[in-house]
Amino acid sequence: MTYVSLNPEGMQKVITDLSGYAAKTREQHSSVASANERNDSPVELSSYLQVIAGSASALEDKAKDLQARLDSAKTANECGLTPVGVDGMISYYIPDGEADTSKNALAFNRVETVRKAEADAAALYQARHSPAGRSSDGRSFSQILDEMKEMRDDPLYSSRLIVSLGEQLPLVEGDYNKDGAKRFVEIMQVARQSCTAETLNSGFENLSHILAAASRSDVSGKRVVSGTELADKIYQASSSDYGSRLTLNAAISEFSNSTKIGYISHNPNERPAFFGTDFLVNLAKAYEKDDVSKSKGPSATINLSRYDGDVLGSVVLAMGEDPRAVLEYMAGAGEVDSNGNWIPSEEGQKRWDMLKQRGWDTTRIEYLISAVGAASSYRNTAYSEGSPQYIKDADARATWLTSQGIRYMTEEVKKSDLTKQMKVGGSLMIANSPEEVTAVANEIKFSDQSSGPVLQNVEDTRLAKLIYRIMDDEDAARTIGVGVGAYHHSIIDREMSYDENRTRENLAAQYQSVAATETFLRNIAHQRHDDKYGDAKDQYDERKQSVDRAVGMVSAVTALGVGVLTVSWTPMGVALATGGAEVGASVLGPVVADAVTGKKPEPPVAEASEGDPSSYGMLHMRAYSDAAKYNLLDERSVEKAKAKGVLIDGEGNPIEPPLLVDDKGNPVSVDDKGNPVPPTDGEGKPVQVHVSDNLKEYVQSANSWANDVRRANKGEQADATVEMIHSRVGDGVNHAGVWVSDHFGGSSSLKE
C-alpha cells in the first residue's frame, strides 16, 4: 500500500490557479475568435484557436485530476481511512499493484461512497418533507429506501448518511437544530408505519441494517460518527418518546433476528453483519438507567414479533452475537483475586441484579440466557493483547458470568418455563464448563480439576440440576457433548505429551475420566426422558435414541477431534475458538441437530456408538490406538494387531484410524475448523474431504482385537494395558452411574 501525501491548502491553490488560467484561456479564445469574425475573418485562425482550446482543456483536465486526488485525501482523512501527517499534510492511499491515477484514488478512498451517502441523505430528507413526497431527483420516499439495499451494510456509507441527515437545511417549521441521529430515528418511525403484523417493510429493514453498519468501529473522523458517539445520539433521539423507543427496539431486534449466522466469532472481522461492540455497550448503559415504566405502553406486532418500548431487551438480543459486548457490559468493571477469579465491582453486581430482576417476558429471558451463553465462550481462552479477540481478564469475567447464568437458570426460571432457546443458551454455558462437568462426573473438587478460574457459588448438584433441565433437547445435548469431548481430547494430548506421563496407568485414568463424564451426561439425559416421556411410549424410544446419539459426541470428539464435525458439511455453530486456548476449545454456538441429522451425513460416531451405551466402542478404539502409539502394548498384542491389520502396521509403526480421506481415498488431515491441510491438491484444485467408509469397520476390528488379547490362551498372560483400559473405562461407567442414581433417584429435588 502506498500513501500519497499532500498539503491541502497548497494543492487547492494550485488547482484554483490552474482552473483560473484555463478560464482566462477560454476567455481569450472567445475574444480572439469574435474579433476575427467581426472583421470578416481576415486571418485564418482555426488551427491557432484549436491549439488554445486544446491547452485550456488540458489545464481543465489537470485541475480535475488534482481535485479528485485532493477530494480523495480529504475524504480518506475525514472518514478515518488515513491519518493526518506532520504540518497538516493529508493523504490518500493506493493499494499495491495499482496505478496512482485519479480514478483509483477516488475508488479506493471511498469518495463515491461518501458522495452517494450525502446524495441519498439529501434525497431522503427532501422526499419526507416535500409536499409531493419526492426528492429533487424525482424519487419517492419508499423508492429511496429500497434503493439503499445495495449499500446498507457499508459502515462508511451508513455513518455518513446519518451524519449528513443532520446537515440538511430545514424544510419545515420545528425541524431546526436537529442532528442526523434524531432525523434518522424519525425516518425509521415513518418507515415502520408500512410494516404489518405479518411482514417487514423492506425500507425499514434497510434502515435497521444502516443503523447496525454505522455503529461499527470501522470508520471515524469529522464526517462520520463513532459507535460510542452514535449510541449517545441515538439514545438522546429516542429515549423521551415512546414511539421512538418502540421503533428502535423493533429495528435492532429485526436486524439481529434476521442476520443470525449460526455461530459466533470472537473476531469481529469474521462476522459479516453485526452491531458495533462499543455501540451496544454504551446504548445498554444509557437505557438501563431509564425507569422500567418508560418501556411500558401499547405494543405493536411487526413480522410476527411483538414490540414495546424496552430497547434494553433488543440490545441484549444483539449482544447474543457479540460475546465481547456481553463481557464488557454484563461483567462490568472489577478485579481478579489471588485465585484468578473475577470479583465484580459494586456497579457490575448491581447491573447483573438489575438484568435478572427486570421482570422480562419469556422472549427477553431467552435473550439474556443466550447472551450469557455466548459470553461463556471466552472461558479457557487466552488471546494476546492487541488481537481483535482480546479482552482483559476475559476468562475470569466469562467464568463469573457463566456462574451467574447457571444460578439464574436454576433459581429464577422454573423448569416448566424453559424454552428451547433457553436450553440451547444453557447448553453453551455447560459446554464451556467442561472442567467442572468432568469434576462432578469423577467426584473431584472444581478447584482440583481446573487450571484457571472456576465457577463460583455453583455446587456440583446445581450444575447437575441444570444439565438435567436441558438434556431433553437434542441440540443442547449435542452442544454439551462437543464441548466436553473437545476438552477431553485436548487433556489426553496434553497429559500424554511428556515421556514420564506415558504410562498405562495414566492413559487408563484419562479414558476412565471420559467414560465417567459421558455416562454422567447420558444417565442424566435418560432420567430426564424417563420423567418427561415415560408415559408416552410413541415418543419415548425415538427421543431417547436421538439424545443418546447426541451424547455420543463426547466419545466421538474425544477420539477423533473437533475437525471431524465440519468435514464435508457445515452444521451451524460448530466453530470453535482454539486460538490461544489453554485447554480444549470454547464452543461458540449451538451444534444444531438438524444440521447434523438432516440431509447431510451424520458424524461417524453416531454409527460407531450405537447399541449398548456402555460399550463405548469408539472410546475403546482410541484408547487402544494411543496405547500402541506410546508403546504400551506387550509383544503378543502387537503381533496380533499386525495380523489383524489394526493399531500396528507390518513395520511395527502405529496406525492412525482411517478417519478422513479425499476423493481418491487418500488420508487427509484437517485443522480445527475442518479445513483440509493442505487445502489444494497437486493440481491446485480444492481438496474434497470425506469421512472414511472404513471407520466403523475399523472400530469394530480394533475392539475385536482387544477381546482376543484379553482372552489369553493357557500359559499366556493377558495384556496388562488392554486389561487396565477395559477395567478403568468400566469403573468410570459404574461410578458415574451410581452418582446419578443416588442424586436423581425417586423424587429428588434436583428434578424440580
Account of the protein in words:
- The protein has 752 residues and is mainly α.
- The chain has a domain at 2-100.
- The protein is built from 30 helices and twelve strands.
- The protein has a two-stranded antiparallel ribbon with strand order 1-2. Strands 3-4 form a two-stranded antiparallel ribbon. The chain has a two-stranded antiparallel sheet with strand order 5-6.
- β7 (576-577) and β8 form a beta hairpin.
- α4 (111-129) packs across α6.
- The longest helix is centred in the N-terminal third of the chain and has 33 residues, at 46-78.
- The relative contact order is 0.05.
- Residues 568-574 and 596-615 have low confidence and may be disordered.
Short description:
With 752 residues, the chain is mainly alpha-helical. Helices cover 56% and strands 5% of the residues. Helix 7 crosses helix 10 (242-258), helix 9 packs parallel to helix 11 (277-288) and helix 22 (504-533) packs parallel to helix 30 (720-744).
Give me some keywords for this one.
752 residues, single chain, two-stranded antiparallel sheet, mainly alpha
Give me the secondary-structure topology.
Layout (H helix, E strand, L loop, with lengths): L1 E5 L1 H31 L7 H33 L11 E5 L7 H7 L2 H19 L11 H7 L7 H11 L14 H13 L9 H13 L12 H12 L3 H17 L18 H12 L11 E3 L2 E3 L3 H9 L3 H9 L2 E3 L5 E3 L1 H11 L5 H14 L18 H18 L8 H12 L2 H8 L4 H4 L10 H11 L3 H22 L8 H30 L3 H15 L1 H8 L15 E2 L8 E2 L5 H5 L6 H5 L8 H13 L5 H10 L15 E2 L7 E2 L5 E2 L12 E2 L3 H16 L9 H25 L8
Antiparallel strand pairs: 1-2, 3-4, 5-6, 7-8, 9-12, 10-11
Helix pairs in contact: 1-2, 2-3, 4-6, 5-8, 6-7, 6-8, 7-9, 7-10, 8-10, 9-11, 10-12, 11-12, 11-13, 12-15, 13-15, 15-16, 15-17, 16-20, 17-20, 17-21, 18-20, 18-21, 18-22, 20-22, 21-22, 21-23, 21-24, 22-23, 22-27, 22-30, 24-27, 27-29, 27-30, 28-29
